[in-house]
Amino acid sequence: MKTYTVYILKCADSSYYTGVTNDIDRRIYEHENAVNPTCYTAGRRPLVLVFCEHFEDVNEAIEFEKQVKGWSRKKKEAIINDNWDKLRPLSVCNNITSHKNYKKQ
Q1: Paired sense of beta strands 48-55 and 16-21, if any
Q2: What is the DSSP string of the chain?
Q3: At a CB cut-off of 8 Å and minimum separation 6, what does 7 contact?
Q4: pTM of the model
Q5: C-alpha dist (Å) from residue 6 to 58, 63, 94, 105
Q6: Furthest CA-CA distance within the chain
Q7: Which domains does the chain have, with CATH numbers?
């Protein structure tokens, strides 16, 4: 059975790149060797694989990749550090303008 991997690379500039692949070894090689010179990671090498999660369903993998790509740096670092329990608190909006922080005058 084919597996699909959602992965996060930490780039030399400390940014994160999130992707999905059906062959993680090939994909890491492509990133490290700038096979696509216009790729986000091409000018940000060296790269370090800091996270990967495997899926049997390609649609679940793609859905998770899209979700992670939209996350804040802190949320990405939570899963990188295997702190999945921190995701919910990190999702709470703490802006002063948030409805939960609104105080009637």
Answers
A1: unpaired
A2: ---EEEEEEE-TTS-EEEEEES-HHHHHHHHHTTSSTTSTTTTS-S-EEEEEEEESSHHHHHHHHHHHHTS-HHHHHHHHTT-GGGHHHHHS---TTSGGG----
A3: 18, 19, 20, 21, 24, 27, 28, 49, 51, 52, 53
A4: 0.86
A5: 10, 10, 29, 47
A6: 61
A7: 4-101 (3.40.1440)
pLDDT tens figures, 8-67: 999 999 999 999 999 999 999 999 999 999 999 999 999 999 999 999 999 999 999 999
With beta carbons less than 8 A apart as the criterion, state whether 16 and 72 touch: no
Q: Are 34 and 45 in contact (CB under 8 A)?
A: yes
Task: Kindly compute the dihedral angle of the four CA atoms of residues 70, 73, 78, 81, in this order, to the nearest 10 degrees.
Answer: 120
Residue of 25, 29, 20, 89 lying closest to 55 (CA atoms): 20
pLDDT of residue 12: 98
Picking from 16, 103, 21, the residue whose alpha carbon sits closest to that of residue 68 is 16
Distance CA 51, CA 26 (A): 16
